[in-house]
Amino acid sequence: MAKAAAPPAPPVSCVQEIGETAGNVWQSLNKHGSMSVAKLVERIGGNRDVVMQAIGWLAREGKLDISETKRGKTLALKD
After folding, report:
1. Distance (Å, whole) CA 15 – CA 19
2. Residue 25: its pLDDT value, please?
3. How many whole angstroms separate alpha carbon 7 and alpha carbon 16?
4. What is the DSSP string of 26-66?
5. d(CA 33, CA 1)
6. Residue 3: helix, strand or coil by DSSP?
7. Which residues lie closer than 8 Å to 12 by C-beta, 6 or more apart?
8. 2-10 long-range CB contacts below 8 Å, 24 or more apart?
9. Mean pLDDT, each 10-residue run in order, the chain (79 residues)
């Protein structure tokens, strides 16, 4: 007798996806140093809106320095 297929994994919640992306943002900035928001979105990949929400999450936690330049915003980890 064949075994029944396992049920599909539950979908990732929106908050979980943002949290995981925040971890990816932190890791990228830690490894590569400061970069523009556009470069970070390109490096992380995925949905730009989720990356922006992850940036907001880290900013709210006080983990980012955000600088305004003529070309846009630059992000760096706080010391």
Report:
1. 6
2. 98
3. 20
4. HHHHHHH--EEHHHHHHHH-S-HHHHHHHHHHHHHTT-EEE
5. 56
6. coil
7. 20
8. none
9. 68 89 97 96 93 97 95 93
Give the tokens for residue 11: 């979908």
**CA-angle at 68, arms to 62 and 69, nearest 5°:** 145
pTM over 0.85: no
Asked if CATH classification 3.40.50.1970 holds for the domain at 14-77, the reply, yes or no, is: no
At 12, list the tokens. Answer: 């990732």
Token pair in block for residue 49 = 């809106």
DSSP state of 70: T
CA separation for the pair 52, 79 (Å, rounded): 21
